[in-house]
Design a protein that fits this description.
Strand content of chain B: under 5%
Helix content of chain B: 55-70%
Radius of gyration of chain B: 24 Å
Shape of chain B: elongated
Number of strands of chain A: 0
Number of helices of chain A: 4
Oligomer: heterodimer
Largest sheet of chain A: none
Largest sheet of chain B: 2 strands, antiparallel
Strand content of chain A: under 5%
Radius of gyration of chain A: 24 Å
Order of helices and strands of chain A: HHHH
Structural class of chain A: mainly alpha
Shape of chain A: flat
Chain lengths: 132, 248
């Protein structure tokens, strides 16, 4: 009997070997032509990441610390995270179901962040204003 | 009786089995969900950093007048301003900028190795894995130096009320600020460094396997892809550590 997971595994193998080269796919010595590298998007993403980091340093040295500067840092960080996850980790090109099953749980982190940081502020406020 | 002979149409929907609804292999899916759980761990660490920072007195004076004190939370540009070979020179965030660049570069060489794997180009996979191992190792070396400097401390240290001075950092006391500051530095960058170390070991194993032709015989370089996912995640975590620990 053919189990679904077995077929799944075979599909993967076939997909990979066919994408690479159709003949002698299991040969140790490569006989077919190796396609040319497609690295344009990779280097473009790299330069975007470098540029975003450079902008972060620019703000770190030219702007006084404050809520606005922190907000700029966080926005730039989210952009950087997007490029790493979408392009380098290839999530942008996966199925919708996979994309959402990774992204939606992360929304819980945002909730925890807001909850605990306001908790910290409240704790500080209590210590300084009510016990001194 | 008649019902038993009726042939039911087999279900062929996306989630009815016999196919891959997420169009990704078992190993890659498991890596994704492991990384999701790891994101929760790192998220919790960074959120505790935010909580601790907000429950301490912030330093509101100008950066020039800043002095280390257990009273207030330190500003990162005055803590992380050392560079190897430039003893005593104030170079705010210069070393961490270098570390960030090295890790981004290692991420690029990693994705180039994955791309070469798709083309079954064994030589290119070897070449880019080796670059990634090199950059990853350099990053770990930088982190070791950063930790050493953080633990040993600066020449001035922190002046205490009784006139004595505290140098460097440990788990109970540090010259930079409240004890929690050093604890969180050790835990967050330490846990990240631990991840980089694991990733580095995996890269070395993948490199040896590639050289021996293991993946080529297998017909695909999916293992390189899975290690690549992990390596990019480590870079991603650094992006957040960098922002929340060193910039804000």
């Amino acid at each position: 009997m053919q189990y679904p997971w077995n077929t799944g595994y075979c599909l993967i193998k076939i997909k990979h070997t066919m994408a690479a080269h159709s003949d002698h796919s299991n040969d140790f010595h490569q006989t077919g032509e190796i396609p040319k590298a497609q690295t344009k998007v990779i280097w473009k993403t790299f330069f975007i990441l470098v540029a975003l980091t450079a902008v972060e340093f620019l703000f770190a040295f030219t702007m006084d610390a404050g809520t606005l500067r922190n907000a700029i840092f966080i926005v730039l960080t989210i952009f950087k995270a997007f490029y790493i996850v979408a392009e380098f980790m290839h999530l942008k090109h996966e199925t919708k179901a996979l994309v959402w099953s990774i992204i939606i749980p992360l929304a819980l982190i945002m909730w925890l962040m807001v909850a605990l940081i306001s908790e910290g502020s409240y704790y500080f406020d209590s210590i300084t204003n009510y016990f001194n | 009786m008649s019902t038993s002979t009726t042939l039911e149409e087999p279900k062929t929907g996306t989630w009815d089995g016999g196919n891959e609804p997420l169009k990704a292999s078992y190993g890659k899916l498991m890596m994704w969900f492991f990384l999701l759980s790891d994101a929760f761990t790192f998220g919790a660490f960074l959120i505790v950093y935010g909580l601790s920072r907000h429950s301490h007195l912030p330093y509101t004076g100008s950066p020039e007048d800043f002095q280390f004190s257990t009273e207030w939370w330190p500003i990162p540009e005055k803590v992380f301003n050392a560079f190897p070979g430039f003893h005593g020179v104030d170079l705010p965030l210069a070393f961490v900028a270098l570390m960030t660049m090295i890790l981004i570069l290692s991420s690029v060489t990693m994705v180039l190795a994955v791309e070469a794997g798709h083309r079954m180009d064994k030589n290119d996979v070897q070449k880019w894995l080796l670059w990634t191992i090199l950059f990853g190792g350099t990053f770990l070396g930088c982190q070791a130096w950063e930790w050493t400097h953080f633990i040993v401390g600066t020449d001035e240290g922190m002046l205490m009320a009784d006139g004595s001075r505290v140098f460097g950092a440990n788990m109970t006391m540090n010259q930079y600020g409240p004890p929690l500051f050093a604890n969180l530095f050790f835990f967050i960058t330490g846990f990240h460094g631990f991840h980089v170390t694991i990733g580095w070991v995996l890269l070395v194993i993948a490199f040896i396997s590639t050289v021996n032709g293991v993946y080529h015989k297998r017909g695909h370089y999916e293992m390189v892809e899975k290690i690549g996912l992990y390596w990019h995640f480590v870079d991603l975590v650094w992006v957040f550590v960098f922002t929340f620990f060193y910039l804000i």
